[in-house]
């Protein structure tokens, strides 16, 4: 957990079944996501690279900086720019998300 001036981030192992489907194509499926909760943001699921079909993704030139997590790299699909991101070198407080992929649109399933 990290907290700064009212801003808080937690990262915990999740038990959710998370699927990412775009235009009928399964991009990722995981039963071992990391759940990141951050003040003012929706819950995000960071998926291990083994659970993501990375061969379908194309690296983007987009980079962003978060003062709490670090620098993010992005990947795209045709017609879906910057659909997914990851932190190759996250800040130590959120080190668990290193190289895990996060998608804007995810579906959680009740098993």
From TrEMBL:
<feature type="domain" description="DUF427">
    <location>
        <begin position="18"/>
        <end position="105"/>
    </location>
</feature>
<dbReference type="InterPro" id="IPR007361">
    <property type="entry name" value="DUF427"/>
</dbReference>
<protein>
    <submittedName>
        <fullName>DUF427 domain-containing protein</fullName>
    </submittedName>
</protein>
<dbReference type="Pfam" id="PF04248">
    <property type="entry name" value="NTP_transf_9"/>
</dbReference>
């Amino acid at each position: 957990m990290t907290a700064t001036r009212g801003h808080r981030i937690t990262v915990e192992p999740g038990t959710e079944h998370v699927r990412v489907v775009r235009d009928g194509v399964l991009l990722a499926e995981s039963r071992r996501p990391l759940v990141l909760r951050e003040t003012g943001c929706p819950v995000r699921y960071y998926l291990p690279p083994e659970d993501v079909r990375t061969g379908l993704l194309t690296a983007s030139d987009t980079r962003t900086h978060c003062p709490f997590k670090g620098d993010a790299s992005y990947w795209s699909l045709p017609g879906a720019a910057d659909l997914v991101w990851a932190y190759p070198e996250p800040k130590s407080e959120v080190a668990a998300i290193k190289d895990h992929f996060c998608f804007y649109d995810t579906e959680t399933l009740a098993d």
